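testing teh design pipeline on a random one, pls ignore if ur not involved
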C-alpha cells in the first residue's frame, strides 16, 4: 500500500463531507496522434493505460494512474488556513489549529513535544523592509513590525491546498476503483475512493 497526496477541489471536498466517498476524473496525458489500448495491465499486473509509440514498429508504453491502485491511500489536501498554536499549561500540551475554508470549520491537532510542534507549523519570516529609514524611532519601528506581522497572519488564514501540511489534513481516502473513460477532451482516469480516516 502506498500513500499519496491528493489535492482536492472544493466540490470534491464537499462530496467527501456529504457522503464519505469520492469519484473523480483526471486527464491522461498522451502524445498526440498515438494508437491507444485503453485500460490494460502492466508487467506487474497493475492497471495501466497503454499506447503505441509512432513509427513503423510501435512500442507499447504503459501509463500508470498517479493516484495509485485499489488499496492505496490518498491524503487529502484542501484550501485551509493556519490559526496559530498553543504550548505549555498544566497538564502540558502542544497543539496547532487549522481552519478548513470549504466549510469554515476548525480542528486542533496535538503534537507530542514542543520541538515537533515548531517543526510542523509555519514560521513567521518577518523581514523589516530595507526601504524604511534607519532613523525611525522605536515606536515607529514597532508599528511597522506589527503591520508586517498582521499581514503575515492574514496571508496564513487563507492558504491554497498545495500548501497544506500533513498534520492539517483531515481526510485519508482508500482507493476502491480505477478505470478509464473517453470523453470529448480525451481519455481520463476515473478513480473511486472512500474515507478511512
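output:
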Amino acid at each position: 500500500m502506498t500513500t499519496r497526496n491528493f489535492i482536492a477541489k472544493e466540490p470534491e471536498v464537499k462530496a467527501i463531507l456529504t457522503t464519505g466517498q469520492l469519484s473523480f476524473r483526471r486527464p491522461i496525458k498522451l502524445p498526440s496522434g498515438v494508437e491507444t489500448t485503453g485500460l490494460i495491465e502492466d508487467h506487474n499486473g497493475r492497471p495501466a493505460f497503454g499506447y503505441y509509440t509512432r513509427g513503423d514498429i510501435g512500442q507499447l508504453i504503459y501509463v500508470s494512474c498517479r493516484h495509485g491502485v485499489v488499496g492505496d491511500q490518498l491524503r487529502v489536501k484542501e484550501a485551509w488556513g493556519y490559526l496559530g498554536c498553543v504550548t505549555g499549561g498544566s497538564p502540558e500540551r502542544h497543539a496547532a489549529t487549522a481552519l478548513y475554508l470549504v466549510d469554515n470549520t476548525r480542528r486542533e491537532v496535538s503534537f507530542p513535544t514542543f520541538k515537533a510542534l515548531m517543526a510542523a507549523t509555519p514560521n513567521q519570516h518577518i523581514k523589516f523592509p530595507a526601504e524604511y529609514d534607519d532613523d525611525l524611532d522605536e515606536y515607529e519601528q514597532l508599528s511597522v513590525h506589527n503591520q508586517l506581522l498582521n499581514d503575515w497572519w492574514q496571508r496564513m488564514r487563507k492558504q491554497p491546498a498545495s500548501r497544506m501540511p500533513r498534520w492539517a489534513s483531515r481526510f485519508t481516502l482508500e482507493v476502491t476503483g480505477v478505470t478509464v473513460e473517453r470523453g470529448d477532451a480525451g481519455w481520463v482516469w476515473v478513480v473511486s475512493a472512500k474515507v478511512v480516516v
